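Q: How do we represent a protein-ligand complex in a form that can be generated token by token?
A: Start from the inputs.
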Amino acid sequence: MTPIIQALANYSASDLARWHTPGHKGRASLPYLLPEFDVTEVRDLTPKSVGGDVIRQSEDLMAETFGASRSRYSVQGATLPVMAAILAATTPYSRVVVDRIAHQSVHSALVLGNLEPIWAYPSLGPGGYLLPVDDKERAQLIMRSQPEAVIVTSPTYEGLSSPLTETRKVCQEMNIALIVDEAHGTHFAEHQGFPQDALSQGADLVCHGAHKTEQSLTQTGLLHININVLPQLAKRVDELWDMLATSSPSYLLLASLDYLQYIRHQEQYHRQWVNFAVGMREMWKTWEAQGLFILQSWWERHEGGQADPAKVTVVGDGHKLFEAIEPFGVEEKSDPAGISLIVTPQDDPAILNRALKQCAGTMPHRNPLTEFARFWPQSSQALLPYQAWKAKREWVPLSSAINRIAAKPVIPYPPGIPLVALGELINRDVILWLEENHEWYRRGTGDLKGLESAIEGSSPQRGEEGLWVVKEPAS
Ligand SMILES: Cc1ncc(COP(=O)(O)O)c(C=O)c1O
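Then emit the structure tokens for the protein with pyridoxal-5'-phosphate bound:
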């Protein structure tokens, strides 16, 4: 039996459009994907701490295309860059201002670094989608809380972005590191028609999930270091990288990043993205005229923000939208208030148009601004994430979890943003959200981590649902 291979064969045979990562969509040419290239550190391929090697050579070529002083190749997605950047820029027990829309990898780094998060909260858009944190509000929070570093998530999972002007300014004035998790925006830099990339806005350390939209293989990521970063921080990043990265990197993955830097040097490649952005904005407009509510277009046209043309989020009845696109392709993310697609120049616009036409049929006389409102609970931090993780814990049924402290995060997947983070107080809104939404995530296309039965890690279907909370002292 080869269950994984069988499942992959079945998926490929279905011939469905892939509106999800990786950006090559199984359609781009991947000329380096050869069995004989599957090696790790041997002879001339071994990285050298002094002197230079082929990886360093390729990373420097990549840095050139991003305008970075140094770029590092990750074969552990964006997760390694996020962790290395945060741990390099902070010391244990220090305060960090963090966008609450951060991915789980950021939350994990807070535990590993024993950091105190001061959350910068987002507001909610149509369908309850999380909007980017407001630049000015974040800047004020930074001034008030005097953190050691700032961790921004931009763009959001749906590709919405806000400028970093004020945030950058206060970070510079206070001489603190600005780290940006730009996992979904590897393709922003140097392409007209995309949100302005974080590096060119002056961020110190920028993390990319290269595979999300670009043509590199799944599990590839990048960490870019700004030319203005203090040398000791750059050195610290390298040390952290050595601590956290595998010592047996896949050279197939590295080769795919090498190929990405090569095509990023080609004018034609940039032109392809620029034309794509024009085409996608026209598509947004066409389908809006047919009654679809497209979150990215709303963000640009009504809120004056910047949105990624490689994302299409249709807000509406998630069940109906899911049924509408199911015969045509596979979404990146679906939830009760809509579906989100990742589209790249590798996709066939004709199939996407057919699927969106079907979606338009689900929307008569509905107003997504008022009808599909969802909420996202906001909890208060009661313990540091590390303390909550180390504390003795107990399982309690959902009904008894109110006012208890989360000893395990609760994470809807995707987007991988904790609904309740470690150490947060579980309030009534959390329970309501779980009651309203848990069935969706159990349906098969996603997951809801942390909602478990009393036997740790097992499925709640087999027992009562509940959460792991910090054990209270016996009274
Ligand atoms: C905003 C954000 N940051 C980081 C990550 C982690 O990326 P990866 O899965 O490539 O490690 C993700 C993954 O979805 C993400 O959405």
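The domain at 3-23+267-364 is CATH 3.90.1150.150 (Aspartate Aminotransferase, domain 1). The two ends are 53 Å apart (CA to CA).
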